[in-house]
Specification:
5 helices
Amino acid sequence: MSNTGSSAANSWLMLLLAGGFEIGYALSVGGSDGFTNLSWSLVAVVFFLLTLWALSVALRTIEVSIGYAVWAGIGAAGAAALGPVFFDEELTVAQAMWLALIIVGVVWLKLADRPSNTEEPVVTTQGAEEIAARP
């Protein structure tokens, strides 16, 4: 794998990490009761700083439009899916289907970011000699 490919993979991993931190931020804001609960508020601030750091690192090589959409999608879908687990929230079948659509869109964006075949064509000197020898 080339260094560029490794860098792109690392950026996508960092973007996934930023999305995970965004989920933690959204859930901890929910637990802070409008920032009146000090412990949850401090956790929210830590997740907020972590998500901004990880997102900024990821956006060094990922286009902002794609990176932000993926980050926001991960955060929104994750918070909506985990809200019923941690809080007294409801997740309907219709909501779950729309969240699945967000996840499919995020995966599709990642697949669309893969470069097409980047191999350079092989040029032989024999073909060049034949072309040069033609009248």
